[in-house]
Every structure is written in structure tokens, then in C-alpha cells.
Amino acid sequence: MDERATSGPEMNHSVGGVDLKQRLARGPRMDPTNLVPYLPRAKWSPGPGDQGWHAMSCQVLKESQKHTRRFPLGVRETCGQEDACGPSPIHLGVTPPRNIHLPRAEYIDWKSLLKVGVMDFITSTAILPLLCGCVGIFSLFKLLQRLRMKAYLRNAVVVITGATSGLGRECAKVFYAAGARLVLCGRNREALDELTRELAASQAAKVQTHSPYTVTFDLTDPGTIVAATAEILQCFGHVDVLINNAGVSYRGAIVDTTMDVDKRVMETNYFGPIALTKALLPSMIQRRQGHVVAISSIQGKISLPFRSAYAASKHATQAFFDCLRAEVEQCGIEVTVISPSYIHTSLSLNAVTADGSRYGVMDEKTAQGRSPVEVARDVLAAVGKRKKDVILADLLPSLAVYLRTLAPGLFFSLMASRARKERKSKTC
């Protein structure tokens, strides 16, 4: 054998009649078992101590480790400079010459491929029409729901108690704009007449409107409730929607509150609304049609300290109308309980205290409450969609409702801490 065939720099780099430089220039071939580039096996057996082999193998490994940490299957040889270069690649069966650069393995960006695949899937002819169809069906559903709500309230006889101020006044405006035939109820005749003139002069209504009808009575007087019911039925013949909105708030400690104050709050917030509901209920059952709405409070689901009489009346309201819903469902009558949180109204100003006097203070939470206009629109939507139970509150009050059920111990501790803070602020 010619000695030049085994000498390092002067050897003939050809295998099977194919020049090694040309084969490397065409790119690496893939081993189906290892899936890594390899070089054709030569007739000679290169030793691991060859300086060119180790220098270039360590350089290739450094470049490949910049992109991936995956290594091919098989036995690995260790370079003498392992700390600096790391483990050497698999013995490929040939010593590359110093003037030939080994091709570097190509790095595959799987994230980019995934993004491209997802975009191709979305923009494909199959998924794009499906998405457009879903959006179209949802839009059509919302449109039909809106049209149904308008048809449900147009020309409907809607009775609103406590319509002279606060949320009741704003509810009168939105239901008037929806085309309902309003029956405005309250204790102050002058305030009711003023609201009637304001509604008649408004240009907000986009549909045919009807002149509101006013009825004056006191919810704490059962005799006036019976007379008002007879007057309403005589005038309109029936009632489509009854909104029990009138109420009074309370501030005080339980130990200082007289029983007269408790009875007064319960008469206004509980006994009055259920008396009016019971008076109008037979006509609804006879027609097998009607809708009863109770404006309760978030305190009908959770109780806050120094609000005992108010929270008790709202808890009773929630329980009564929940029972009513179950009993009259077979008669085709809807019952909706709406529980708002703090609303920026004069409710705290007109609240009664432990001795029965007027509170006369705008609470900080009440001043930061929601606008009554927004709440009135939510009430209109809840009635039009015939919802059963609606909570109109921010995140924290809504979470407190679930916390009361899921973690009662924690809820009671938080309420006790709140009571201590309020008591300290009042004594100071």
C-alpha cells in the first residue's frame, strides 16, 4: 500500500471514487437511526488523539450547543479538554482535514412553526367560515334578544313604587323611553306631578310613549295600598310589571335601636311591598301573565354591621320572592330579584337611626356608588330578559356573597373587624 494513502496532510481525500471535499460541499447526509449529519466512513482508522479531529469537533459542539441541548443517540467520546469543550460528538469514522469545515446542524424553531401552523389553520378554508358563522349566529341572537325585550316592554303597564327620587325616578325615565305605560307611585303628590311633566317634556323616547299615571299612597298604611290597587286595576284593567322599589335605609347599633324603628323599617321594606304584591297577584294569576320585580340589596345576601334592621328587611324580601317565584312559575308569572350594591342616591341621607331620627349624612361608600342611571338601565335589561336573580355589585361585594357560603369563618372575622373599625371611628 502506498504510504501517502495513510499520511495526514498529503493523503488522497477520496472514498469510492467520490472526492470528500465535493461530498461535504453538497451538504451532510442524514443517518436514519441517529438523524445527525455524518461523513462517509474511510478505509483508514483515525485515532482520537489526532489534533485536527479534536479541535474541529470541539468547535462544532460549541456552535451546536448555542441552539439546542439535544445529543444524538450512541456512545460519546470525551475530549481531553472536557471542561472547556464539553463531551465530544460521536465518532463519525473520519478525521476531517483542517481546511474543511464541518456543516453545522440546522436549528428548528418549534415556536415559530407552531405559530405558522395555527395561523394556517385559522385562515384555512374550513375554519374561517366556521368562525364567521359563529359570530353571525351570536350577533343574530343578541339582535333577537333586543327586539324581544323591546316588544315585551312596549305598551306594557308598569307600576313603579318610590318613583319620586333616586333609583325609582331613573327607572321611570328608562321605562318611559321604552314605550311602557307607567303608573308612578309615591307619597308626595307634587314630586309625582313634577316627574310627569319632566317625562312629557323629554325627547329621549324613540318609540311611541304614553302619559304616566300617578297614584299617591303610603306603603306603611295597608288601607291606602288596597285603595291604590283598586284604582290601578280600574284604570288599566291589569298590571304587566310591578317594580317594588320603595324603601328606607337604617344606621345604628342593635343595642341602641328601639323596636319601633325595627317595625318601621320592616313595614316599609318588607310588609308594604308584599302587601302590594298580594293585592295585584290574583289579577296576574287570572291572566296567567305578569312580572313581579323586587329591588332588594346586596345586604339581602350578606349582612353588614350597624345595618341590622335594613339587612333583616332585605333578607326577608329575598326569601319571600324566592318562594313566590317557585309557587307562581306554573301560572306563567315571572319573578325577578335585583340586588344592587351602593348607589349614589339620597338613601343614606334619609336613613333612620337607632332613635328614629333622620341620619342626614352621605356615607363615603354611598357617595362613591354607581350612578342610578346605570343601575336603572341594568334593571330595564334584567326585566326585559326576564332574569331570575341579578346582583349589581362590584367585584369585592360579589366575592363576599360566595365567601359567606364557602368560608363563613373568614367572612365573620372580616365583618367583626369592620364593626370594630366603625365603632372606633364613631367613638373617636
Gyration radius, in Å:
41 Å
The tally of strands reads: 11
In CATH terms, the superfamily of the largest domain is NAD(P)-binding Rossmann-like Domain
| CATH first level of the largest domain | Alpha Beta
Q: N-to-C SSE series?
A: EEHEEHHHHEHEHEHEHEHEHHEHH
Q: What global shape is seen?
A: globular
Please state the second-level CATH architecture of the largest domain: 3-Layer(aba) Sandwich
**Poorly predicted ranges:** 1-10, 30-47, 65-94
Task: Describe the largest sheet.
Answer: 7 strands, parallel
Widest β-sheet, arrangement of strands: 7-6-5-8-9-10-11
Query: Treating each run of at least 4 consecutive H or I residues as one helix, how many helices?
Result: 14
**Terminus-to-terminus distance:** 110 Å
Percentage of residues in DSSP E strands: 5-15%
Helix proportion: 40-55%
The name CATH uses for the topology of the largest domain is Rossmann fold
Number of spatially distinct domains: 3
Protein name: Dehydrogenase/reductase SDR family member 7B
Function: Putative oxidoreductase.
Family: Belongs to the short-chain dehydrogenases/reductases (SDR) family.
GO molecular function: oxidoreductase activity, acting on the CH-OH group of donors, NAD or NADP as acceptor
